[in-house]
Write a structure and sequence with these properties.
D-Maltodextrin-Binding Protein, domain 2, 2 domains, eight-stranded mixed β-sheet, five-stranded mixed β-sheet, globular
C-alpha cells in the first residue's frame, strides 16, 4: 500500500477515533497544544485541532461537515471544583487545553467570575486541587474514578461543571471543540480524504465501540455518538461564529471569522 500522500495530525483521545478511522496508521498523534505547533510550523497539511486555533490564525480553514462537538453535556470537558463559582480565585488548567480554557473563560465571565489560571503540574495532583479544568481522557478518568455526574462523592469533594452543558444553556447552540483545520487553498483531494474517513468511521461506529479497549462498552456507547457528536451542521457553524465573537471579547487577541471549506 502506498504511504499516505498527506501529513495529517490528530490526538490520542477516544473521541477522535470515528473521524480518523479511515486514515490508516500514518497519522501524527500528539496532544492538542503540540499538534497546533506542528500545524502552524507547516509540518502538517491538516490536523484535528482545537477550534480556537483556526480562529486565531487567518491562514487556516475549517473543513465543513464534521467535527467533535456536543449538543448539551459533553462529559469529558469540565471544571472539577470544590469552591462555589463566585468564590473561585484560581483554576489549574489541563496542559492540553486550548479551546476549553477559552470556553471556560467565556462561561465564567458570564457568571462574573474572573479567576487566575495556572498550569496543572501533573494529572495525578488533580484530586488534591480545589479547582481544575480537565479535558479528554484525563477528564473521563477523573470522573470515573470519583463517580457522579454533577456531584463527585467521596474524599475529593468536587462538583463537576460540564462546559458543554453550560454553553448549551447559555447560548442554545452546539459547541464545537475540534475540527479538521487545513492550510489556505488546501487540495480538494485532502478534503475528500478527511470527509471519506469520517464517513467510514461513523458507518463503523458500532464496530469501534465494540473493539476499543478504553473503558467499558456501555460507556463507549454513551460517549461516542452520544455525548460526543460529529455532524457539523448549520447550528454547529452558528455556534462556532458565536464562540468567535465571545473569544474576540475576552482573549485580547485578534480573532478571525471562521472560513468553512468543502471539497
Amino acid at each position: 500500500m502506498n504511504p499516505q500522500p498527506f501529513r495529517i495530525g490528530s490526538v490520542h483521545y477516544l473521541n477522535a477515533l470515528p473521524l480518523t478511522h479511515g486514515l490508516g496508521n500514518d497519522l501524527v498523534l500528539l496532544p492538542p497544544s503540540k499538534l497546533a505547533v506542528e500545524m502552524h510550523a507547516g509540518r502538517l497539511d491538516a490536523a484535528l485541532l482545537s477550534i480556537t486555533e483556526a480562529l486565531f490564525h487567518p491562514e487556516h480553514e475549517i473543513l465543513d461537515g464534521v467535527g467533535i462537538l456536543s449538543r448539551g453535556p459533553v462529559y469529558s470537558v469540565g471544571l472539577a471544583h470544590r469552591q462555589p463559582l463566585s468564590a473561585i480565585r484560581e483554576i489549574h488548567l489541563d496542559p492540553a487545553s486550548c479551546t476549553s480554557v477559552n470556553l471556560l473563560r467565556i462561561l465564567l465571565d458570564r457568571c462574573g467570575c474572573h479567576p487566575r489560571f495556572v498550569p496543572l503540574a501533573d494529572y495525578a495532583s488533580a484530586p488534591s486541587l480545589d479547582n481544575v479544568l480537565l479535558i479528554g481522557n484525563p477528564a473521563i478518568d477523573f470522573r470515573r474514578t470519583h463517580g457522579g455526574t454533577s456531584e463527585l462523592p467521596g474524599t475529593t469533594g468536587h462538583q463537576w461543571l460540564d462546559l458543554g452543558e453550560l454553553w448549551q444553556a447559555q447560548e442554545q447552540l452546539p459547541f464545537t471543540y475540534a475540527a479538521w483545520v487545513l492550510r489556505k487553498d488546501s487540495p480538494t483531494a485532502l478534503r475528500r480524504l478527511l470527509l471519506d474517513s469520517a464517513a467510514q468511521g461513523l458507518a463503523a461506529l458500532d464496530d469501534i465501540i465494540a473493539s476499543r479497549p478504553e473503558y467499558d462498552p456501555a460507556f463507549r456507547r454513551a460517549y461516542l455518538g452520544g455525548y460526543i457528536q460529529y455532524l457539523m451542521d448549520a447550528p454547529a457553524r452558528d455556534g462556532i461564529r458565536r464562540f468567535a465573537a465571545h473569544l474576540a471579547r475576552v482573549s485580547g487577541r485578534p480573532v478571525y471569522p471562521p472560513r468553512f471549506v468543502q471539497p
